[in-house]
User: Fold this.
Amino acid sequence: MIKLLAVDIDGTLLNSKGIITNKTKEALKYATNKGVHVVLSTGRPVQGIYDIYDQLNLNTPAITYNGAIVIAHKEGPIIYECSLLPEDTKAIIDQGNLLDTTIAIWYQSKLYTNKLNDLAYEYAKISNVPPILYKNLSEIYENGATKVLFYDTNDTIASFQESLIGVFSKNVVFYTSRPYFLEFVNKQVSKAVALMKLEKHYGISNNQIMAIGDGFNDLDMLKYSGIGVAMGNAPKEIKDQADYVTSDCDNDGIAKAIYKYI
Assistant:
């Protein structure tokens, strides 16, 4: 029996227009009424999911920053937190500057960037946090960032992903959450690790978890859960490792999966 449903946001919960459809809302309400804990699981910061909490009338935990911070509920305390090491933070930012890409740095729930360009403002709009042009990163270098992200064209990000293999320490992992986002976090951070923390929180096991997602940052979560569901708009590599492939985000894929398994 499924007791926890972990749902990715962008490309999964939200359709291509950035909207949660009524069918999806009804299906999630159905799951909640069945006693299932609906958990948002995203690369977004905490502030970037407040509106979604309100739309779905949720007060459950959420996995944010791809698992770097897990919160107990919308206004609640942090259950788990794991930042990049200071030396890794500096190495990633230095490399981003060398590559002349747009860098987003999350530190103490604030968004710092190296460029106040269109990409920085677009990313800030998604995150619902205003960007701050950094001048002095000494405090961040001393303590370590929650997450660092490169924002560029799809082709450029793909080339970065290839060229940066082996550049950073073994404490760093990176992957694309969107084709134009390359995200860097501590190796101990993942949506799967975050689910392990929530297992203890709720007293459940991983075979009682269903996870739905579409990106490479969702893959470990899908593989760890009892039922891993890939969206129809997910890359083939994600679909191939899922237990079930549902419809895409424009055709209420979440609803289809919920009514199949819950």
Observations:
- The longest strand covers residues 172-178.
- The domain at 86-186 is CATH 3.30.1240.10 (Hypothetical Protein, Haloacid Dehalogenase-like Hydrolase; Chain: A; domain 2).
